[in-house]
Specification:
- This protein has 486 residues and is α/β, with parallel strands linked by helices.
- The chain contains 17 helices and 13 strands.
- The protein has one domain: TIM Barrel (Alpha-Beta Barrel), CATH 3.20.20.80.
- The chain is 36% helix and 16% strand.
- The longest helix is centred in the middle third of the chain and has 25 residues, at 228-252.
- The structure holds beta-D-fucopyranose (FCB).
Length: 486
């Protein structure tokens, strides 16, 4: 178990920070670099008028206010109050206090010239027990947030589920229990009816592979469950809910543009030896194909991952059809590349060659900084003929930030990262790949799950002592860059 744990925890970019060296702010004093595509300066207008420019966030990572106005507990409230003091996770409840500062934050995203805001709904804020009684104050909070976006000409994009399951549902085994389907349907229906008059852009799940494996296989994230006996049913039920949630939203939101999101990693073998190529194919199946292929009617990738045959125990008649849904767009979220080689230990028979051993540039969490990967990911996913449209629903980098006495954060490396990523997206777009949106992770620094408040991804710096918001140089770069958007 510990080997598998290590492999996956590393592949899924969590808990690897201690053992690697970061190469940070290598050019802290330089001005914004000019990234060129085909010899031309990068321009927002080149992406076209329909391209969505946004920032992304999630409820648990930003809202705070865990016990106010009738909110119920989520599994992340339980996890962060369990007494563990690593990486300051116990401060989750007041990291950003977006619940109180949402107006300022929406104003800041407008100031940076973004047109869209992706946020998630906290299930336990609107249904404190997960089902049944509705918390009107929770509904009121999201109404205010949505109205604030619209008043500022910002298009809201809502995610139904970004990992914060109501604790009451986890008490009944959460994603492992097939009843999650009806619980989720009830929640999706309520969200559609309450907010669908104003929110037209929806995402069902955030990165199902991440939350089911980290939370139900390796137990490093909430709700800290282990083993295939938890993971396999949780995986199947999440795959069902992604499609079912899509159907509920489409049926109940007039003019709905509905998608769902996937974590994606570039997976490459260390060399061309057949055994290493096969090892990479197995990891690719786990990280990139597990949730999208059943959705597209292709079933689970059991050839590469024979342990998935265990899912047959949880499949009910009609599930193959139930797993399918034709989303309007697919949300891809890319952060890093993994290089793998064969290893004798099952079930994956693969191990990562860690970035620290490869001498490549890493971010603060120890993952390779590899902007070109986004082009490879777009190329890979666009090969599925069923995908009509792709939105990059998250992309970002954590580097250490230093607040100078003049209240400036010279995060030129973060700005450069986004510029490089964007130039690869434009290349893909110009080659005919249907990518039509970019959401920066994240609007503000926030609570980074098991890593606590240490890694910072935001375009806006948060001073956690006094909640002061300071636009980083990367945010100022976007402000300038997006002035030219159509
Ligand atoms: C993604 C998550 C998001 C955030 C970023 C850094 O995997 O969806 O909540 O933690 O990583």
């Amino acid at each position: 178990m510990s080997f598998i744990f290590r492999l996956f925890a590393i592949l899924l970019k969590r808990n690897a920070r201690n053992s690697v060296s970061c190469k940070l702010n290598k050019s802290i004093s330089r001005e914004f670099p000019l990234v060129e595509t085909d010899g031309m300066p990068l321009k927002a207008s080149s992406f076209g008028g329909s391209f969505s420019w946004g920032v992304a966030s999630s409820a648990f990572q930003t809202e705070g206010a865990p016990d106010v106005d009738g909110k119920g507990k989520s599994i992340w409230d339980t996890y962060t109050r369990s007494g563990k003091k690593n990486r300051n996770i116990e401060h989750a409840s007041d990291t950003n206090n977006f619940y109180y500062h949402y107006k300022t934050d929406v104003r800041l995203l407008k100031e940076m010239n973004f047109g869209s805001f992706r946020f998630s709904l906290s299930w336990s804020r609107i249904l404190p027990k997960g089902t049944g009684t509705i918390n009107q104050k929770g509904i009121g909070f999201y109404n205010n947030l949505i109205d604030t976006c619209l008043e500022n000409n910002i298009t809201p994009w809502a995610t139904l589920y970004h990992w914060d399951l109501p604790q009451s549902l986890q008490d009944k085994k959460g994603w492992v229990n097939r009843d999650i389907i009806s619980w989720f349907e009830e929640y999706a229906y309520l969200a559609a009816k309450q907010f669908g008059d104003r929110v037209k852009n929806w995402m069902v799940l955030n990165e199902p592979m991440a939350f089911t494996s980290l939370g139900y296989l390796f137990g490093v994230h909430a709700p800290e469950k282990h083993g295939f006996r938890n993971f396999i049913p949780a995986m199947h039920h999440a795959a069902l809910c992604q499609a079912i949630g899509g159907r509920v939203l489409r049926e109940n939101v007039p003019g709905c543009n509905v998608g769902t999101t996937f974590s994606c990693s570039v997976v490459e073998p260390i060399d061309n030896q057949p055994k290493n190529i096969k090892a990479a194919a197995r990891i690719d199946a786990a990280l990139n194909r597990l949730y999208i292929e059943p959705l597209l009617g292709m079933g689970y990738p059991v050839n590469e991952l024979p342990f998935l045959k265990g899912v047959s125990k949880y499949i009910k008649e009609g599930d193959f059809e139930r797993l399918k849904f034709d989303f309007d767009f697919i949300g891809l979220q890319y952060y890093y590349r993994v290089i793998v080689k064969h290893h004798r230990l099952p079930p994956f028979n693969a191990i990562e060659v860690r970035p620290a051993f490869r001498g490549v540039l890493t971010n603060e969490m120890g993952f390779e900084v590899y902007p070109k990967g986004i082009y490879k990911i777009l190329d890979k996913y666009s090969a599925y003929p069923q995908i009509k449209k792709i939105i990059i629903t998250e992309s970002g980098v954590c580097y250490m930030d230093f607040l100078t006495s003049g209240k400036v954060i010279k995060d030129y490396d973060r700005a450069e990262y986004h510029q490089q990523i964007l130039s690869y997206i434009l290349k893909a777009k110009n080659e005919g790949i249907p990518v039509d949106g970019y959401f920066v992770w994240s609007l503000t620094d926030n609570f980074e799950w098991g890593e606590g408040i240490v890694p910072r991804f935001g375009l806006i710096y948060i001073d956690y002592h006094n909640q002061m918001r300071i636009m980083k140089e990367s945010g100022k770069w976007f402000k300038k860059f997006l002035m030219d958007k159509e």
